[in-house]
Design goal:
This is BolA/YrbA family protein. InterPro entries: BolA, BolA-like_sf, BolA/IbaG_stress_morph_reg. By secondary structure, the protein is an alpha+beta fold. The chain has a single domain, classed as BolA-like (GMP Synthetase, Chain A, domain 3), CATH 3.30.300.90. The chain is 39% helix and 24% strand. Strand 1 and strand 2 form a beta hairpin.
């Protein structure tokens, strides 16, 4: 069973300087939602941003250990435009 912190560390290693927040949506360790804010997303489409997030998690996606990952991705500029949360 995966945990949010393991996935978070993998994403931070793959996307240095990012802010990553992960939640286990079902408590079963295979369904997560993530918010990732990364300078690596600057100038990239949403599809390209999502591909950058999925890439370091392929081992778990292919094995089915990670069954679902809902993503919200933003460049720092996109996040700033959304205003305070």
């Amino acid at each position: 069973m995966l945990d949010a912190e393991t996935l978070r560390r993998y994403l931070l290693d793959a996307l240095p300087g990012s802010e990553v927040e992960l939640n286990d949506t079902t408590g079963t360790g295979d369904h997560f939602e993530a918010r990732v804010i990364s300078p690596a997303f600057t100038g990239k489409s949403m599809v390209e941003q999502h591909q950058l997030v999925y890439a370091p998690l392929q081992q778990w996606l292919k094995s089915g250990e990670l069954h679902a990952l809902a993503l919200k991705t933003y460049s720092p500029e996109q996040w700033k435009k959304l205003g305070p949360r």
